[in-house]
Design goal:
The complex is a heterodimer of chains A (389) and B (515). Chain A has 389 residues and is α+β, with helices and mostly antiparallel strands. Chain A has 11 helices and 14 strands. In chain B, 55% of the residues lie in helices and 1% in strands. Chain B is built from 24 helices and 2 strands. A two-stranded antiparallel ribbon of chain B has the order 1-2. Chain B is globular, with a radius of gyration of 24 Å. The chains are: A alpha+beta (389), B mainly alpha (515). At the A-B interface, helix 8 and helix 9 of A face helix 12, helix 15 and helix 20 of B. Chain B: Pfam families: RabGAP-TBC (PF00566). Chain B: This is TBC1 domain family member 19.
């Protein structure tokens, strides 16, 4: 049977104290230590670690440009943990004092507790604490991350938006993940302005539906959302096909890289699968940024269309997680046949990629003409998902 | 032979006259003067050399495009003694009907004015002007009280008028025969039948590649798509309007569409155009028209609630408000049977006329153009070439009357069982499909499908495809429709068109149905 659990329950199920063991015919919808990916601070930590490892290995993926920025792995905005990295942050802040930063509590969701700052004085609280009580561990509830705010987001109709993409991971080692074709864009109801006077106006800056829902102009029929296909059509029509394809390739790339970053530390329990909600922002140079990954992406619906989408999402997820709708057996090889994918597409299949030959140590990169395709997404003719070569 | 020649020279003279007043003429003149500096231009053979220069530098192409563009809207040659009204619309009863329809609209507007004590037009006080200028990019967030404004008319009302059109010279006879038209439209206009449509739309045939069908994921791109894109790029490089129009009959690749449409409609972004747009914008700021509130209300009700178009709400206001003040639009009324009602601002501040119309289809264009003045130009050109015909009564083959008749005839001739059944249950098919056609399917189809459809409108310079598509939709859902027993149920079956793929439907209906 499939146990659909909340994050809380998962913690209990897998905690050492309870001694609860899942039997072979039980599968659950979370990995025990998913927070390595879904907590904002741990995600950044893991990605930083992953990058350093690749650099040490001398992998071409870790190549940097003349400014010291990673060429292919720079997809997370500069981030520091507070209060732990306060001093490091101050150093960075002073380099560009007119920049805006966004403070996010590590353990919360739905846009709760987020605010923007552009002056050091606004976060004095975290500096004071770190100076006086360095050996008192901060409870996780008060831990924050501070990231460089992307103040040049791509605007459509003058509005800021972000992308919510669903990614299903059935196993981390070997990595097998699927991307849901029907992701969507969430629009702010108010026109975007980077002006400092509007930093407090969360309707301008935060796209979470939980926040936008309370805005005056929130529309309940379409809920301020566009499908990813709409976005693609718009970008292709106004910017051209090549840059649009490149953008989408990059998005797929950063999702796969983020999963690879946490794969080594994930408890790859065979009873587990997980569907993540990836939040991505595109800036006006058409560069995608990974903002965060959600472990319990909202499965409530705000509009009629939304309901249909979420229903299909759950349906397709379960079809992949469990073979043929039969009683799950966690010993199966987790390789579902093509027909059950539904609206999912294979994003990356490590086994397939490795099976393509021994000299595939050089992983593929977007826009480079070397290395294999990351994974086949369709067999005949079209490879829509990955055009890495 | 002589008649044709003199007709041709008349046409040429008229086009030359028209072009002399355009900015292209001024540009050509400037270019000609500038070219005198060039070494290859010699005094002895001045005329030939300049012509040669024009050919090489692409200016001749621009002229060709302009002529082509004029030709496509040029009314067909007519009797030299024909009065101007006749040129607009040769059938008297149509003219009369359009006239009384306009009077009705005007009366409705005027009564709304008196009821609400709002003038048809007024100059804005300076404070209000400043405010509007600030809010220009955000008009969507404003929420004035619009509850008292009623839309001037709904598509249903317009349909009623069309249904009641009768040709006084035509005697239908009381006896029913196989030729009796069972539909709602009762005017004897000539419409194409399927063999004629097949010929007209020959490029949509089964053996020709199409975007919208042959670019789907199962088909390898080498078969059609890549080549088609390559040709498209070539056409754009050549800047040839006529070639573009021919090319787009097979659909336009998304990346090239914005430029292709601009080329076909012969829109280039000259500084004068941007200035013109700014001037219109100033007009909007300075004067407030009653029509504005109606536009505002209409956009709020439709586009703001639409899944795809809500993002562009603010653009829609900008474009439509400017459009309602654009007097150059009146130029097209020379070939439209409508004549715009006049209105004078209190104090006669110069603004003379504006057209009253049902706000047409701007939203899909926002997917292609995000620069306001370009968006505006494209929209205006699309309106004066095509969409105005959906809102006025005329006998033109692309006019709404002909489209309705074409739709009903197709249905009655090729799906008689379905047609009869629907008629029996009180669900005349036209009552359902009218709203699709009058909006050129905007708001009913998915955006990418809509754009493919509009590609063909541009390519064939005709709106007939709307009627064919409407009939094809009915054919597609025929099985379900045969089982319904009420108008409401029929509407329900046809309520959601957002999943339909336009090109396969058209192809099947035109080329693959056994007739």
């Amino acid at each position: 049977m499939i146990n659909w659990m909340s994050v809380q329950t998962i913690r209990n199920v897998f905690s050492v104290e309870t001694g609860y063991r899942l039997s072979d015919d039980q599968i659950v919808n979370h990995f025990p230590n998913h927070y390595e990916l879904t907590r904002k601070d741990l995600m950044v930590k893991n990605i930083k670690r992953y990058r350093k490892e690749l650099e040490k290995e001398g992998s071409p993926l870790a190549e940097k440009d003349e400014n010291g920025k990673y060429l292919y792995l720079d997809f997370v905005p500069v981030t520091y943990m507070l209060p732990a990295d306060y001093n490091l942050f101050v150093e960075e802040f002073r380099k560009s004092p007119s920049s805006t930063w966004i403070m996010k509590p590590c353990g919360k969701a739905q846009g709760k507790g987020i605010f923007l700052i552009n002056k050091l004085s606004q976060i004095k609280k975290w500096s004071r604490d770190s100076k006086t009580s360095s050996f008192v561990s901060q409870s996780t509830k008060e831990a924050y991350v501070i990231s460089l705010y992307i103040n040049n987001p791509l605007l459509i109709g003058g509005r800021k938006f972000d992308l919510r993409l669903y990614v299903l991971v059935s196993t981390y080692r070997p990595l097998r993940c699927y991307m849901y074709k029907l992701g969507f864009c969430r629009f702010c109801t108010v026109k975007y302005t980077p002006s400092t006077s509007e930093l407090d106006n969360m309707f301008v800056h935060l796209t979470n539906v939980a926040i936008q829902k309370h805005g005056e102009d929130y529309n309940h029929i379409h809920g301020g959302k566009w499908t990813v296909n709409n976005l693609r059509l718009y970008l292709e029509s106004t910017r051209g096909k090549e840059v649009t394809s490149k953008l989408f390739d990059e998005i797929h790339w950063i999702i796969v890289q983020s999963l690879k970053a946490v794969a080594p530390v994930m408890n790859n329990d065979k009873h587990c699968f997980e569907c993540y909600g990836y939040d991505i922002i595109i800036d006006d140079k058409l560069k995608p940024w990974l903002i965060e990954v959600n472990a319990s992406p909202s499965l409530t619906s705000s509009t009629a269309n939304d309901r249909i989408l979420k229903y299909n999402l759950i349906n397709d997820t379960l079809n992949i997680a469990v073979p043929n709708g039969e009683i799950p057996d966690c010993k199966w090889n987790k390789s579902p046949p093509k027909e059950v994918l539904g609206n999912y597409e294979i994003l990356y299949d490590e086994e397939l990629a490795q099976g393509d030959g021994a000299d595939r140590e050089l992983r593929s990169r977007p826009g480079q003409s070397l290395g294999p395709k990351g994974g086949r997404s369709r067999d005949s003719g079209r490879t829509v998902l990955t055009t890495w070569k | 032979m002589l008649q044709e020649e003199s007709d041709l020279s008349l046409v040429i003279a008229q086009i030359v006259q028209k072009l002399k007043g355009s900015s292209l003429y001024a540009q050509l003149e400037r270019q000609a003067w500038a070219s005198l500096q060039r070494p290859e231009i010699k005094l002895e053979s001045l005329k030939e050399d300049i012509k040669e220069y024009f050919k090489i530098s692409g200016w001749e192409k621009k002229l060709q495009n302009a002529v082509y563009s004029e030709l496509s809207v040029f009314p067909s040659p007519s009797h030299p003694a024909a009065p101007p009204e006749h040129l607009k619309e040769p059938l008297v009863y149509m003219r009369k009907a359009q006239g009384s329809w306009e009077k009705r609209i005007l009366k409705s507007l005027n009564s709304m004015c008196t009821e609400l004590s709002i003038p048809l037009a007024r100059k804005r006080p300076v404070g209000e002007q400043k405010e509007l200028l600030n809010k220009w990019n955000e008009m969507g967030t404003d929420e004035p009280d619009l509850s008292l404004f009623r839309p001037v008319y709904a598509p249903k009302d317009f349909l009623e008028v069309l249904i009641n059109l009768r040709n006084p010279n035509y005697e239908n006879g009381d006896s029913l025969s196989f030729r009796t038209h069972l539909g709602l439209i009762q005017v004897p206009l000539k419409v194409k039948d399927i063999p004629e449509l097949k010929e007209f739309f020959v490029e949509l045939g089964l053996t020709t590649g199409q975007l919208g069908i042959d670019d789907s994921t199962q088909v390898p791109p080498e078969l059609f798509e890549n080549e088609h894109v390559r040709i498209g790029q070539k056409v754009l490089a050549e800047q040839d309007s006529a070639a573009a129009q021919q090319y787009i009959r097979q659909g336009s690749p998304t990346a090239l569409r914005a430029e292709l449409w601009a080329l076909i409609l012969n829109i280039s972004s000259q500084p004068e155009d941007i200035l013109y747009y700014e001037q219109l914008k100033t007009n909007v700021i300075q004067h407030d028209l009653l029509v504005d509130s109606l536009i505002y209300k209409d956009v709020k009700l439709t586009a703001s609630n639409d899944d795809y178009y809500f993002v562009f709400e603010d653009y829609l206001y900008q474009v439509l408000l400017c459009f309602s003040r654009d007097t150059s639009v009146l130029g097209h009324f020379a070939y439209n049977s409508a004549s715009p009602p006049k209105s004078y601002i209190r104090g006669k501040l110069g603004l003379e006329e504006y057209a009253v119309f049902y706000p047409p289809n701007v939203a899909p264009l926002c997917f292609l153009y995000h620069e306001p003045s370009k968006l505006y130009q494209i929209f205006r050109e699309m309106y004066v070439r095509f969409f105005f015909r959906l809102h006025s009564i005329s006998s033109h083959p692309s006019g709404i009357v002909s489209l309705c008749l074409l739709f009903e005839t197709l249905l009655q001739t090729y799906l008689p069982q379905l047609f009869y059944h629907l008629r029996e249950i009180g669900a005349q098919p036209l009552r359902i499909s009218f709203k699709w056609m009058v909006r050129a399917f905007s708001g009913y189809l998915a955006t990418d499908q809509l754009l493919l459809l509009w590609d063909r409108i541009l390519g064939y310079n005709s709106l007939e495809i709307l009627a064919v598509l409407a009939a094809a939709v009915f054919a597609f859902r025929a099985v379900n429709l045969m089982e319904v027993t009420s108008l409401a149920a029929a509407e329900a079956v046809l309520a959601d068109l957002s999943t339909l793929k336009v090109m396969p439907l058209l192809q099947i209906f035109l080329f693959a149905t056994v007739t």
